[in-house]
Amino acid sequence: MTERFDHKRIEAFWQEAWEKDRAFSSSPSNDREKYYVLEMFPYPSGKIHMGHVRNYSIGDVVARFLMMKGKNVLHPMGWDSFGLPAENAAIQNNIHPSKWTYENIANMKRQLKGLGLCYDWDREVATCAPEYYKWNQWIFLRLYEKGLAYKKLSLVNWCPGCSTVLANEQVIEGACWRCSSEVDAKELNQWFFKITEYAEELLQCTYKMPGWPERVLTMQRNWIGKSIGAEIEFKVKGAPESIRVFTTRPDTIYGVTFLSIAPSHPVVDKIASREKISEIKAFSDKLKNKTKRDIDLLEKQGIFIGASCVNPLTGEDVPVYASNFVLMEYGTGAVMAVPGHDQRDFEFAKAYNLPIKVVINPSDSALNPETLDKAYVDNGVMSPLTPFAGMSNIEAIDEILKILEQKGLGKKTINYKLRDWGISRQRYWGCPIPIVYCEKCGVVPVDLKDLPVILPEDVSFTGKGLSPLANAGAFVNTICPKCGSEAKRETDTMDTFVDSSWYFLRYCSPKELTLPFDKADASYWMPVDQYVGGIEHAVLHLLYSRFFTKAMRDLGLIGFDEPFKNLLTQGMVCKETLKCPEHGFLFPEEVKAGKCVKCNKAVSSGPVEKMSKSKKNIVDPDRIISEYGADTTRLFSLFAAPPEKDLDWNEEGVEGCYRFLGRVWRLVLDNIEFIRDVQKYDPQKDGSLRVPTPLYPTDPTKHDPHKDDSFQRKAEIMDIHTLTHRTIEKVTHDIEERFHFNTAISAIMEQVNALYLFIGSMPVEKLETNGLAKKVLRESIESLILILSPFAPHISEELWKRVGSLTPLYMTRWPDASELALLKEEFTLIVQVNGKLRSKVIVPVGATEADVRPIVLNDAKTKEWINGKSIRKFVYVPEKLVNIVAG
C-alpha cells in the first residue's frame, strides 16, 4: 500500500529544515537580478485570519517562483505594532500594551511560520521597538527642519465624560464608545505633515504608474482632488468684509443667486445679524461630529444669516446662507450658489424659494427657469443675461477671468481637496514626538544625538484625560536642548500611519545603526517590485508612503520617486452568515438541524459577507491547517478565485484541494520504482517523439494499431510529453504575467488527471519495459513537482527528495517549456460511438472534418461498433473528439 500522506509530519519537517538552513535569507548581489516582493505587514492582533492567509500566500507564490527563476528575492515580514487596540486592551484587561503586543507577535509569527511562508526573518521589524521608532523621530526632525512638519489648531473628537480625545472609530453614532457621552468637537494644537506641498507631484505620478490598478489610481486622484478654477471676492454689503469663494465654473457667475457658507466660517460672527447668531451656533453644533460622508447624506438645510454680498460682475445683492453641506475644511468654506447650473444649489433654491437664473443654454434651445425640473450642468452657449450672449461657455471663462482680475476681485487658481496630514494622537501606545517646550525658547526639537525619545513603561491607563504620557512626570519633565532650562516634552504620539509609511525601506537594512536605512542597500532593493495588500489601504497608507518617499528623496536619502512599482489589491475572503431572529448572528456550532441551540428557532442563511467577528462567519486558520495542512489551506485560498476578486469560503473546496494533494502524493510514490533509475527524456539523446502521420486509410494493411500498438503507444507518450510542456508554459505565464493562480492550479490538476489516465492505460509490464515511457513519465512527474511547489511547498519538497534530488526545490531552476514539444504535429483523437469511447486514432494537427472522416471510418475498432448501422451524425470537435451517432 502507498504510504499515507501525513501532512503534519511533512510540514513540520520542512519548516524546521528551512529555518535551520536560513533558506530564504537575502543579501545584495551583483550576479542576479533583484526582485523585492512585499505584502502589507499586519497589526499584531493576536491571531491571523483567512484574509492574512490569502494575502501572504499570494506574495509567497510570487517569491518562490522568482527564486526558482534565478532572481535575488527579498521577501521580508514585520509588525505594524503601535496603535489603539493595544491601549484599549490595557484599559479593559489590565495588561500593559507592550506585553499584549509582543505576546501577539509571538503567536502570529508561529502561525505565519506554520503556513510555510518563505520570509527572511532576519529582517523582521516591529514598529513599537525603540530601534525602529528612533528613526520615525529622526525623520520627523528632518521634516521639521525642512518646514514639512508644523503645529496648528485643529478640531478633535472630545468626550466630556472621559475628558479625552477619541479616534474616529471610537465615536459611535456621535457618542463615546466607552461612556456613551455625546462627543463634541474641540480645538487642540496638533502636529501636521505638509503633504499638500507634494499634491501636484503625487497627482502627476499617478499617470506614470502602469503597474497599479486603475481603480486605486482613480481613488488617489479623487482624494487629491485637483480642480482648476477661480477664487472670487464677494464684498459684504454695508461692511468692510469680503467672502472669498472658489469655483470651477466662473462661467456661471452671472447666475449666482445666493452664497452658501460653512456655519463655522469666521465671517459669520462679523456680519450675521445679532438675532441670528445663537440659531447659527446651534445649527453649527449639530454638525460638529459629522464626517463629510455623513454630511453628503443629509437633507440640504440652511439659515439666512441676515446679510448679503454683492455679485462683483452684476452688482446684484446676493443673500448669504449658513448651509449644512459646506465645510470649513474644504476649499474656502464658502460656495457661490448657481441653482440654474448646479443640482445641489437647485434643490436648495427650491426648498427655500430662492430665484433661479439660466445663464448657459444648450446650443439648440433656450431654457426657461420657471419650468426647469433640474439644473442644466452641461456645456453650451452663454444666455442673453450675460455680456457674452452666443459665446460658448468654455470661451467665456477666460473673458470673465480677465474682467475679475482687472477689478481686483478674482484670479485663476488651482485648488486641491487634499489636506495636510494630522499626525498628533493623544494616546500612549505610539511613537513619541521628539519636541520639547521651553518657556524661554518656545518649541525646541530634540537633538538627533539624543534619539530615541523612549516611550516609558510605567504609565497608568484610565481611559480618561489627555495622553497618558501627560501624567508621566519622569517623561514630561526634561531639559531644554537649547538653553538647559527646565522644559516639558510633547505628550502626543504619532499617527501609526507614520510607522507604515517607510517600513519597506527599513527592511533593506534593518540592523543599520547610523541612519534609518543604508542608502546603498535601498538603491539596490528599492523600489518594491511587487506590493500586495487590501483595497482598504488604497488611499491613506499608499498615499502617505508615496509622500514619505518623495520627501526622503528631497532629503537626499534616496534617489527614486515612487516606492512601489507594481501593486496587487487582493479581494476579501467571504462566507455565508447564519442568523437567528432572536439572538442575531450565530457561529456554525450554535446551529443544530437548522435551529438555534439557544432558543430552538429556525435559523436563516444570510448573504455571503466579508469574514468578521461581528458577523460570526470567521474561519480559524489554525483549525484548517491542523485538519488539512498548510499546503491545502494555501492551495484553496489561491485556487478558489482570481486574487483581485472576493473569495467565497467553501469547506468542500478545501476538502477537494486536500484530496488533490493526496492524488499527487500517490501518483509520485506509486510510480517511483518505474522512474527512480531512469533519466528524464532528452530529445537530443532519445530521438524525436514525433510520429509520422498514419498511412491508413489509403493503405491500411501497412499498419494496424490494434495488432501492433507501438505506433499508438508512441503517440500517447508524445501527448504526455507535449501536455507537460504546455502545462509548464501556462503555469509560468499565469504566475509571471497575470497572477491568475487559479487557472495555473487548474492546469496542474489537468496534468495530474492526464498522468493517471496514461499510467492506467498502460499495463505494468509494458511500463516496465518501455524505456521511453518511463523517461517521459519521469520528466512529467518532476515537472509537476516543480510547478506545484510555489503553491504547495511542503509536499513538493518531500516528493522532490523522494524522487532522488539532493538540491532543495527553492534552489532548483524553474523548468522551461520546450518549443519543440509545443510544436505538436499530430494528436490523439478520441472516437465515440453514440457517446461512448470506442477508439483512438492519430490525426494531423489542423485536420478538418473532411480529413478526419476517412481516417475514423477506416479505423478497425470503429468499424466494429458501426458495422451494419447507418451513420446519422458525424460530430467533430477539432483536436478533441469525434462522436458518431449510428443506428
Distance between the termini: 46 Å
- How big a fraction of the residues is strand? 15-25%
The quaternary state of the protein chains shown equals: single chain
What share of residues is helical? 25-40%
Main sheet overview: 7 strands, mixed
- SS-derived structural category: alpha+beta
Number of helices: 29
Mean pLDDT: 91
Number of strands: 35
> What characteristic shape results from the CA principal axes?
globular
Low-pLDDT residue intervals, each spanning 5 or more residues? 692-703
Radius of gyration, CA atoms, in whole angstroms: 36 Å
Description:
The model is unreliable at 692-703 (pLDDT under 50). Helix 22 runs parallel beside helix 25. Strands 8, 9, 10, 11, 12, 13 and 16 form a 7-stranded mixed beta sheet that branches. With 887 residues, this protein is of the alpha+beta class.
Which keywords apply here?
single chain; 887 residues; alpha+beta; seven-stranded mixed beta sheet; four-stranded parallel beta sheet; 29 helices; 37% helix; globular
